[in-house]
Amino acid sequence: MTWRGASLWREATNGPNVVARRTGHGDIAHNSRRPIFYKNAVVTTPFSDPHHARAITLLSLAAFASAASVRLCDPMLPELARQFSADTTEAARVVSFFAIAYGLLQAFFGTLGDRIGKYRLIALCTLASTVGTLAAACATSLDGLVAARFLTGMTAAGVIPLAMAWIGDTVAYEHRQATLARFLAGQIIGLVSGQFIGGLFTDTLGWRWSFIFLAIIFAGVGWHVLQESRHNPHAKQVHTSHLSGSGMLAQVGAVFATPWARIVLAIVFVEGMLVFGPMAFVPSFLHDRFAISLTTAAAMIAAFGAGGIVYITFARRILQRIGEAGLASIGGGLLAVAWLVMAMEQNWQWTPLATFLAGLGYYMLHNTLQTNATQMTPAARGTAVSLFASAFFLGQSCGVFVAARVFNQSGSVALFAGVALLLP
Fold it and tell me: Closest by alpha carbon to 219, among 109, 121, 129?
């Protein structure tokens, strides 16, 4: 990653380490007017506590459902365009409108989570996502499907950022990168499975069944997370600070008043635009260019998740060897190479390599950004992480909007090569 980028990133990643200090309450706080205190914060490795480990595992499952919903419609686009007599740009609204809703609601859930408890709110968001997902299964028009996806984006918006903020509240900073990497497993598998589920059902029973299947997952996981929020002491509200009782505008203002936070938010917006904007059209590209089934096209993108799993497996060692700035820079470079391979490939056998490199590069970059996001504004951590996710998904929405037009007007080569040139 060398968007004007690299110098700003060094400032973002090195800055907080210089001023970080122990609060004496199990966490690290940055220079601020008042110290931040966390009750019940975990200083040892969090997975050494079975109660805490179970709580994180359930959050990972909720992240799986949320992430699967994000990418569920990607392989459906050709079939949706055919069934509703629309072009790919119109059909892509089921992806972009979900991302818009997902992005816009982040700050709301972050502030609410700081007030009523993040873990409990994650459970409610997961359960509520069942409604929009079932509505999508019953949609009789493209506009109805877009509306149902928008509703699902609104409720699913709270799951992943609130889970990250909860981990930030309960895991000391020195263990946070590794813990978030483990939490990412659910998100990674969800992103890959969402595309595979969408492609599989579209090719077999019909696209509506993919939404029914996902609704069952939302309902089951949401119920278990709700029970955990009631019975696991780690899942209780633990965040207390001088901003905890403040309104949303005050907490948002506190985040944007931090220069480091503004840099991280800008970078993650561009990341979302350049990674998942064009990614939405990879199944359509493979289906149109190489005449392979949507299920096979979606399955090839599983290599993206494999890259993420490789990162998770070696995250601690890689971090120790090259540091956060190195992770971000190399990750951005791998993403550029991946899109260049995609643009130049003459047969589909190159696709798994390209998506593997994209997955590895993306998670090297994104997990570093996520870790820093949990410490941007500790006094309003839920709001800060939610704004981070908001910027990320609004970037995705802009990326899908732009990519749809480039894909239709100039073709896949122009789209993928253009992204590769913009990344370095």
Answer: 129
Q: For residue 242, which amino acid is it?
A: H
Helix or strand (DSSP H, E) at 329? helix 302-344
Confidence of residue 57 (pLDDT cuts 50, 70, 90): confident
User: Do 91 and 300 meet the contact criterion of CB atoms below 8 Å apart?
Assistant: no
CA–CA separation, 255 and 380 (whole Å) = 7
Rounded (10°) CA dihedral 239, 242, 247, 253: -100
CA distance 87 to 82: 8
Angle at 403 between CA 400 and CA 405, to 5 degrees: 110
Tokens standing for residue 39: 């009750």
Tell me how far apart the alpha carbons of residues 4 and 21 are, in angstroms, rounded to a whole number: 30
Residue 382: enclosing H or E segment and its boundaries?
helix 381-410
pLDDT digit string, tens, across residues 105-152: 876 776 677 677 788 889 999 999 999 999 999 998 999 999 999 999
In the block, tokens 């820093």 appear at 372
List the structure tokens of 417: 């090569």
Q: Can you point out the beta strands (E) in 149-275?
A: 239-240
Q: Are 216 and 110 in contact (CB under 8 A)?
A: no
Q: What global pTM score does this model have?
A: 0.67
